[in-house]
Amino acid sequence: MEALVPVAASGLVGAFAEAGVLTAADVHVAHRLGRLGGEASERVLLAAALAVRAVRSGSVCLDVRRLSEVTVDELSDDDIAALPWPDPVEVVAELRKSPLVIGGAGGPLVPLRLVDSDEGELLYLARYFAQEQQIRTLLDVRAEDVPRVRPSEVRAALDALFVAADGSPARAPDRQRIAAALAACRWTTVIAGGPGTGKTHTVARILALLVRASPRPLRIGLAAPTGKAAARLQESIDEQSGVLGLPPGPKAMTLHRLLGWRRGGGSRFRWNADNRLPYDVVVVDETSMVSLTLMCRVLEAMRPDARLILVGDPDQLTSVDAGAVLADLVARPVHGEIDVAVRELVSSDLDAASDPDEAALSAGEHRRLASGIVRLSRGRRFGGDIAALAVAIRDGDDDRVVEVLSSGSDAVSWRGSDDIAELRDDVVRSSANVTRAALAGDADGALARLEEHRLLCAHREGPYGVRQWARHAMEWVAADTGRALDPGGWCPGQPLLVAANDHELQIYNGDTGVVVQLPDGSLGAAFARGHEAMVIPPSRLADTHTVYAMTIHRSQGSQYDVVSVVLPEESSSLLTRELLYTAVTRARRHVRILGSEEAVRAGVRRRVLRASGLRREIRPYPR
Ligand SMILES: Nc1ncnc2c1ncn2[C@@H]1O[C@H](COP(=O)(O)OP(=O)(O)OP(=O)(O)O)[C@@H](O)[C@H]1O
Questions:
Q1: What is the ipTM score, two decimals?
Q2: RecBCD enzyme subunit RecD N-terminal domain spans which residues (predicted)?
């Protein structure tokens, strides 16, 4: 735990630091703001520190009415409830007269912004408020105008591209076809959907449609937040480009690369509001992992007359940095009507009754189409029980979750935390497979084998944490091979996790790789990049760990054949619906849950609080 308690942290702020809710950095920022702004109220300083903490833990702002809804590694709900939380009404009253919010005699410093919303007050650090406003404005401006398209051409392309296996037009309702019509007729489109709902399949067809309907060659930018996600996008588009007649060319890259990251440039990219991206269409995959700040940069860098297609799964855990932009966009209040052009192109889908495979569009879905948002719902990859489990978790139906877990399905298994025989077998077998390929110098093979099995935990520390379970896994592997692993050294087959972005090496926080033996006998660290692995000397890796187990947060954006999930005790505040959903949807073939029924049910019921104003109507204070 990072609870470094500074000597100066006393009173309310000190109590929260002591408990591990606030870090030394949160406390430091709050005290500094207090000193500079001439604010001594303990409640205001606590709110400021909690606002810093909120950003650190992924929210854009602090939901003042729900101050105490924090999740803390190692603290139970009861521990958290026992802290001396101030009354939110009093906090708001003091914030309304605080110089940190309304400005003071000391100068122009107004580091906090308070806004009212229908669901209560939100407290922002000024920078995040500005970014959120910028995103709101840019999206609204982009929605004021529409691309000029020839409906007959778009219709012909839709008919040709969205077909059933026998070549006839796909049956209505087909949300993929609706997504394509939206993307043709709007500058900004959001395509949401769980794993295997055909998001990438749809994107490839949208690109084919736009290429066909464009009188000149289209400049297409493909991007994702991580190198790995970009590589997956590339592979998927490449696989389909032959059939669809897509011109060769677009290379998927990380968002940082797309925006032109520059050393020493901070968050100032080569492509920005004054120097717009040179693309006609930009597709961003895995948008759930994009932070508020990065989304702001992307929108600023887009020409107003270039299409932006945001793709991702809003039910997943969100970016490590502040912001749940995709989920917010999907939940944003909607104004206006669905575009006439879209309605005419896909009226049969919009008005269709439910089909055995795909339900009719709900009233809420109809409304969201007006904002260019469509949610694909028909699972196309893993039928059956992983999808059923994911949907039950997403819907918060804990009885159904328990039912699916207990069904004896091939795709789902459920064991107690100490029933580890199968887990151990999977760890040992997949490690042996990875090591065999790594020793043979087969980087691609080793990377592929790395995806056979993954052990995931909610926590970093403690009896259910990554550290402990990674140690178990290493012991099992060592017992099997008769060779102890040196945690400080490098050896072929060693699984790696990158913990910080290195733009120069093009490896990113969350990337996973593996150590392989090279033909000259030296060792290389291999990372998946498109069709060919990128191999770099391990000595160049700065912030990289050996990873026999990883947190569920870290596993976002990756999938594995088999996933084993170690659940903490039911009282853990980290055990949430989003966490479980993310863990379960990492599995392609089989998901194994290790934990009690109480833990499963508690996880399904507990929600992550990701406060943001983007999904609400807000009124900044003072007006
Ligand atoms: N309309 C469709 N007809 C036939 N097959 C489809 C259709 N849509 C998707 N598929 C197939 O379903 C599988 C999953 O699709 P895809 O990879 O596009 O999903 P995804 O939502 O992008 O998944 P992920 O989030 O895991 O990347 C693929 O094999 C794809 O070819």
A1: 0.98
A2: 18-115
Per the CB < 8 A criterion, the answer to whether 506 and 257 are in contact is yes
Single-letter residue type at 71 = T
Q: What is the DSSP letter of 380?
A: -
For the Cβ of 613 lying below 6 angstroms from any atom of ligand 1, the answer is no
Percent of the chain surpassing pLDDT 90: 58
Q: What pLDDT digit, counting tens, does each position of 77-119 carry?
A: 888 899 999 999 999 999 999 999 998 766 667 899 999 988 8
| Complete domains list, the chain, with CATH | 9-124 (1.10.10), 144-374 (3.40.50.300), 391-603 (3.40.50.300)
Record the pTM: 0.84
**For ligand 1, atom 5: residue with the closest CA:** 380
Residue nearest (by alpha carbon) to ligand 1 atom 7: 198
Query: Is any atom of ligand 1 closer than 6 Å to the C-beta of 176?
Result: yes
> pLDDT digits over 413-440, tens only?
999 988 999 999 999 999 999 999 999 9
Give the number of other CB atoms < 10 A from CB of residue 485: 17
Three-state DSSP class for 405?
helix
**Contact yes or no for 327/58 (Cβ under 8 A):** no
Give, using CA atoms, the residue closest to atom 13 of ligand 1: 381
Backbone φ and ψ of 286, nearest 5°: 50, 45
Binding residues for ATP: 193-200
Burial environment of residue 478 by CB neighbours within 10 A (0 to 12, 13 to 18, 19 or more)? middle
Q: Which residues contact 185 (CB under 8 A, 6 or more apart)?
A: 146, 147, 149, 154, 339, 341, 342, 345
What are the contacts of 391-400 at 24+ separation with CB within 8 A? 391/194, 392/604, 393/577, 393/580, 393/581, 393/584, 393/604, 394/194, 394/315, 394/577, 394/581, 396/577, 396/604, 396/605, 397/604, 398/600, 398/601, 398/604, 398/605
Helices (H), 420-563: 421-439, 443-450, 466-481
Secondary structure class of 202 (helix, strand, coil):
helix
Average pLDDT, the chain: 89
